[in-house]
Amino acid sequence: MRDYEISPAQFNRLTPADYLLIDARESSAYHHGHIPYAINCPLVKVEKYLSEYPPEKQVVLYCAKGLLSVEVAATLQAKGIDAYSLSGGYTGWLIENLETGRDKEIHLEVEQSIRKKFHRALFSKFAKAINEYQLLLAGDKVAVCISGGKDSIVMAKLFQELQRHNKFPFETVFLIMDPGYSPENRAIVEKNCERLQIPYTLFETNIFASVFQVEKSPCYLCARMRRGHLYSKAKELGCNKIALGHHYDDVIETILLGMLYGAQVQTMMPKLHSTNFQGMELIRPMYLIREDDIKHWRDYNNLYFIQCACRFTDTCNTCNPDGTTGSKRLAVKQLIARMKETNPFVESNIFRSMENVNIDTVIAYKEKGVRHHFLEDY
After folding, report:
1. N or C: fewer beta carbons within 10 Å in the chain?
2. Which of 157, 174, 172 is closest to 108 using CA atoms?
């Protein structure tokens, strides 16, 4: 280890009073999950920040894998600042803390939090979506798809809680697809499932390798391929449904994304019939759950998950040393947050707009793939 690096084990022996911790990743990664007491500051702005607020204690920097933060730490040390880079970055710290995590009964605490503190925000809305959109029927066998992020993990725990209520019989398979994860990220996903008592079935694909060289819309192609593999494996296991962890905020962001970037009005549906896998259906039981409530549940239980583990984002290039981001979804998320400052109902209005479409005032629309124009019946 170089002189300007500190290992996760060494860092864990420090107390917050000993250091100033800077998370140098993009804001979306920081808000998805970060080390306690870290402030978010892009690498390109670190020197300016430290010049305006001279640190009186040791500075510890981290990015995704510690590849870029180590260079900044070396530069800061050359300028006389007591700065170090966290070896392995956020991923390295996460692995260290999962390996040396809390007692083996953490799953009991997590389940208790769902029954008590987060019952209204999480479980009630989960059950409401299932009832309101008729997502589950007696005899269903559901592949609960786990990516390793906060959304899919809480969905798995909510399904377990629903089964404990035993209102009607249905089966679950907790399905993890490895599309080409790094060994570190795969270990994080598996370790979290083991600690939280989620009995998973894992299968491997080479999707990341297949789309890595694709220049145009690799994320779209990756998503299509991943869904196809999930349908195929779920059907092989005897399932008739797959459950994905999209939540309320995903829904309203998708509505605006379609309008602003796709010139179309559409929403993310709570359930869909598969067009390529007969008899299979996709359901989204987290449809009414707010992302902030998922974050509160995660932080309350001191849980840490991977954000996105694909080869396009799971590198220090996404620490964005220039402080910018090209994510359309992030731009829409920020737009909604700004609008909410002056209109507290903006999110619910966007969501409800898809339930209040007045066809009489629409110039053209599509139904089952066929385009209709208002002049047809004018």
Report:
1. C
2. 157
